[in-house]
Write a structure and sequence with these properties.
Layout: E1 2-4, H1 42-55, E2 66-71, E3 77-81, E4 86-89, E5 91-94, E6 98-100, H2 108-111, E7 116-117, H3 124-127, E8 132-136, H4 140-149, E9 155-159, H5 171-178, E10 183-186, E11 189-196, E12 200-207, E13 213-217, E14 220-223, E15 227-229, H6 250-254, E16 278-280, H7 292-311
Parallel strand pairs: 5-16, 7-14, 8-9, 8-14, 9-10
Antiparallel strand pairs: 1-5, 2-3, 3-4, 6-15, 11-12, 12-13
Bound molecules: flavin-adenine dinucleotide.
Length: about 300
């Protein structure tokens, strides 16, 4: 969560459980961020970002999490911290991100980002050329991933726990999947374990109806089972969409729920929530791209809008 005030800038990148760096810090290699043509490890990227923020006099604090957003005195926003202290600010940028749902299968931690992935990058299809891969999930992101990977992979098994894909995936994607001879849809099944010696080699598929397991050779498992936005601290004061992400911009303006945009004589800025002066940036906001570049771009935009609010 980023707290902005004027003239001094204060940033609290509260780290629970992963300290400054968030999801990006857990990625072994980020290959699609501008300026790093051969990729960069998440740890290195976030280390450099932290150094850069300090150079611009940002104050980083990683000891406490924000537990509540509340109305402070004189129109200020109050951010309550988990140690009983609070911070007051005229503008706040909520950048609390999301937690990707992880696969509940044996050995997943050993292979995370080294055979088990939570995102599909454009380069992944080529990386999986002539290999057998698995995509777990029944939503549109899983469908798009399966179609993308099938362009180069020898086989793509799309694993879902439910009986049918049609209930959870757009019709056009389903048609595309069904037209690809190298995509196999496996229903009522889950990945129960992953195995390998140094690299991912096998996955156990457990049938949900009879409980039988089958071990198959596989070089990559892409887990696309959604993410949970981190909004516990703000949900009482802001508007969230159906999936729990913070609405902002036009979404905030259109909100008719209990937390709605007040009659201020202006419309909310692109990343402004229903609370004037409170912005949402990165994965926590509705419609985010769920990419490092998108989160960084949101941050830059939110700061610009925050300055406009402060200068008004
Ligand atoms: C394994 C993995 C690999 C990825 N690989 C890539 C990739 O190669 N390329 C790419 O573009 N994207 C990748 N992504 C996605 C990318 O990391 C995210 O889109 C990006 O990190 C989002 O940034 P964010 O700042 O919005 O949120 P996050 O990175 O989720 O950061 C949010 C931060 O806020 C903290 N926080 C949460 N709640 C509170 C609270 N109440 N108080 C204080 N702090 C709080 C969290 O602990 C966290 O540190 C990957 C994601 C994962 C999980």
């Amino acid at each position: 969560m980023t707290i902005q005030d004027s003239p001094a800038t204060q940033i609290r990148a509260e780290g629970f459980p992963d300290l400054a760096g968030g999801q990006a810090g857990t990625s072994t290699r980020i290959e699609n961020y501008v300026g790093f043509p051969t990729g960069i490890s998440g740890t290195e990227l976030t280390r450099k970002a932290t150094l850069q923020a300090r150079r611009f006099d940002a104050v980083l604090s990683s000891f406490h999490s924000a537990v509540e957003l509340a109305r402070g005195p004189e129109g200020l926003v109050r951010v309550d911290l988990d140690d009983g202290q609070h911070a007051l600010a005229r503008t706040v940028v909520v950048a609390t991100g999301a937690h990707w749902r992880t696969l509940a299968a044996d050995n997943v931690e050993r292979f995370t980002d080294a055979g088990v992935y939570h995102a599909v990058m454009p380069t992944d299809a080529e990386r999986c050329r002539d290999e057998d891969v698995i995509v777990v999930g029944g939503g549109n992101s899983a469908g798009q991933a399966a179609v993308h990977l099938s362009r180069a992979a020898r086989s793509v098994r799309l694993i879902i726990r439910g009986e049918r894909l049609a209930a959870t995936m757009s019709h056009y994607l389903l048609e595309r999947i069904e037209s690809r001879p190298n995509i196999e849809i496996i229903t009522e099944t889950e990945v129960s374990a992953v195995h390998g010696n140094g690299r991912l080699e096998h996955a156990d598929l457990r049938n949900g109806t009879d409980g039988n397991s089958e071990r198959i050779a596989v070089s990559a498992v892409f887990v696309m089972i959604g993410a949970d936005p981190c909004t516990d601290a703000v949900r009482m004061m802001l508007d969230l969409d159906e999936a729990g992400y913070i609405t902002c911009g036009a979404g905030a303006a259109a909100c008719e729920g209990p937390n709605r945009w007040p009659s201020t004589g202006r419309q909310p800025h692109l990343l402004e929530t229903v609370w004037p002066g409170v912005f949402a940036a990165g994965d926590v906001r509705a419609g985010a791209t769920k990419r490092v570049a998108g989160a960084v771009g949101d941050g830059a935009l939110a700061v610009r809008f925050a300055h406009q609010v402060l200068e008004a």
